[in-house]
Write a structure and sequence with these properties.
The protein is α+β, with helices and mostly antiparallel strands. It is built from nine helices and 22 strands. A hairpin with a 4-residue loop joins strand 12 and strand 13. The longest helix has 28 residues.
């Protein structure tokens, strides 16, 4: 009986003693495993049960890395890659401004002279470096009429920029600053853009770049592609990329990038009924911009000095009914000039143009958008209805003779 009691006591005591020894060992070695010794260096004893977290730099760095490592993603990597190549652009333009007169338009007071004066107007926008030797992309409406251009980079340097060339129709301008080994962006493929993929707009809204030499970043998605907007002051916006990434005043000319850090568009147009971003921003597809840039580098302009010899008017309900059209769309040829490209191409008065280069023509502005975007020497393929039959006609855009 006594023997059984002794065995039972040993069975209970051995684990207890072993656990106590292990706990003692761990407690005296914990200072090397992230928790400091219970007695601080100044000799004071902390309250019972208190633990002091280690404060050495290696330990703090490891904690910081774990936190930032968890926050780093494709978006932050893309922003870090592109940011050094984004620039702020400040311009000085000369504009004709009509001076206010207390007499209004009264002809009696016109002898006081012309009330239109020339003023210097300050403007700002965004841009991005596309080559190590300092070529910069921006919008024509940012720098196309500038007399003086100052470019600010993310290292705080300011450069006087040269306007290499500009194109009002495509709303693209090419600038050049003197520099070597400058950071520059990687141009992507805007034909491969997916609706719903991440989109990042970068630039200089409201001149914030001038305050801290850093571009502002907004993130959203590609909302739509291939958007056709109404022409604005001679500028043609077709095939645009729509995004809900906030684009505000001053963002024009900045890059729209994807999550891989590739530029897919140039920020150009915002819809602002209340003078603020409502998630309707549009960028010029970068594939369209590439050919514009190549021509601007070569000749400083886009050659569009051509003519067609066609006169057109929109198809209304009456014309549609007369010609038996199912829809009120297209334009009708109202005149063909003698010895013109249109006459040599076989156009007749009364022809109805329904499509141009595969794009449906709904009215005069849609045809003019296609024509105005073309270059001298291009040939348009037009789908035409003549006497209830559909034919294709080729229209060369010949250089206008002086």
């Amino acid at each position: 009986m006594k023997r059984n009691i002794l065995i039972t006591i040993l069975v209970l005591l051995v684990p207890f003693l072993g656990g106590g020894l292990i706990g003692y060992s761990v407690g005296h070695t914990s200072s090397g495993n992230g928790i400091a010794s219970a007695r601080p260096a100044n000799g004071e004893v902390p309250p019972s049960g208190a633990q002091t977290v280690r404060d050495d730099s290696a330990y703090r760095d490891s904690i910081g890395e774990s936190v930032t490592g968890g926050r780093r993603n494709a978006i932050t990597r893309a922003v870090a890659t592109v940011s050094p190549a984004v620039v702020g652009i400040n311009v000085t333009e000369l504009r004709q401004v009509r001076q206010w007169s207390p007499w209004g338009d009264d002809p009696f007071f016109r002898f006081f002279g012309d009330r239109t004066i020339t003023q210097q107007v300050q403007g700002l926008g965004s841009g991005f470096i596309i080559s190590a030797d300092g070529y910069i992309l921006t919008n024509d409406h940012v720098a196309g009429n500038a007399k003086e251009i100052t470019v600010t980079t993310t290292d705080g340097q300011q450069y006087k920029a040269e306007l290499v060339g500009t194109d009002l129709v495509s709303d693209i301008a090419l600038l050049k600053i003197s520099g070597k080994n400058l950071p520059y962006v990687r141009l992507g493929n805007s034909d491969d853009v997916i609706i719903g993929e991440w989109a990042i707009a970068m630039g200089n809204p409201f001149g914030l770049f001038d305050i801290n030499d850093k571009p502002t970043v907004t993130v959203g998605v590609v909302s739509n592609t291939g958007v056709k907007l109404q022409a604005q002051e001679g500028r043609v916006y077709r095939g645009m990329i729509q995004t809900d990434a906030a684009i505000n005043s001053g963002n024009s000319g900045g890059p729209l990038i994807n999550a891989m850090g590739e530029v897919i568009g140039v920020n150009a147009v915002i819809y602002t009924p209340n003078q603020g971003s409502i998630g309707l921003g549009f960028a010029i597809p970068i594939n369209h911009v590439k050919s514009i840039v190549a021509e601007l580098r070569k000749s400083g302009k886009i050659e569009r000095n051509f003519w067609t010899g066609l006169e057109i008017q929109a198809v209304d309900r009456r014309i549609a009914r007369y010609f038996g059209l199912e829809k009120v769309e297209g334009v009708i040829v109202s005149d063909v000039q003698k010895k013109s490209p249109a006459e040599r191409s076989g156009f007749h008065v009364g022809d109805i143009i329904l499509a141009a280069n595969g794009e449906r023509i709904t009215d005069e502005s849609s045809l003019l958008a296609v024509v105005n975007e073309a270059r001298t020497g291009d040939t348009l393929t037009l789908k035409v209805m003549r006497e209830h039959k559909i034919i294709d006609l080729k229209l060369p855009l010949e250089k206008r003779s002086l």
